[in-house]
Design goal:
The chain is α+β, with helices and mostly antiparallel strands and about 120 residues long. About 25% of the residues lie in helices and about 30% in strands.
């Protein structure tokens, strides 16, 4: 829960961990429920948007979680990363104001997930 993602175990077939993040369902499925060969550590890199990357870094460090690099300013977003307990890279980004203005414009034009869902039912 340190990152604010409240995963709960789903008893659906196949069982997995999941939650709702914004407008999206987020799920982590065990590798053994997928066909084919195992991919191993590092096969997936997750990235999460945060709103205060400096506060997140302080929280991570206070909990004993080392960041891989201090927050970097790319001009469009700030980013940092950690290793999860399995060794996978988890990235965090604090997006610039222009990105959220872009999202607000899309939403006002009906281009958000709820509007798309309603349109598909019409």
């Amino acid at each position: 829960m340190l990152l604010g993602v409240w995963l709960t175990m789903s008893r659906d077939t196949p069982a997995h961990w999941g939650c709702t993040v914004g407008d999206l369902h987020f799920a982590i499925h065990p590798l053994d429920t997928f066909p084919g060969e195992r991919t191993g550590v590092g096969a997936v890199r997750l990235a999460f948007t945060v709103f205060d990357i400096q506060a997140l870094v302080r929280c991570l460090e206070e909990s004993g979680t080392a960041v891989l690099y201090p927050p970097r300013d790319t001009g469009f977003f700030w980013s940092t990363a950690i290793h999860d307990p399995d060794g996978n890279v988890i990235e965090f980004t604090q997006l610039c104001d222009q990105w959220f203005e872009h999202l607000a414009t899309r939403r006002s034009q009906g281009a958000d997930v709820v509007a798309r869902w309603r349109a598909s039912k019409a």
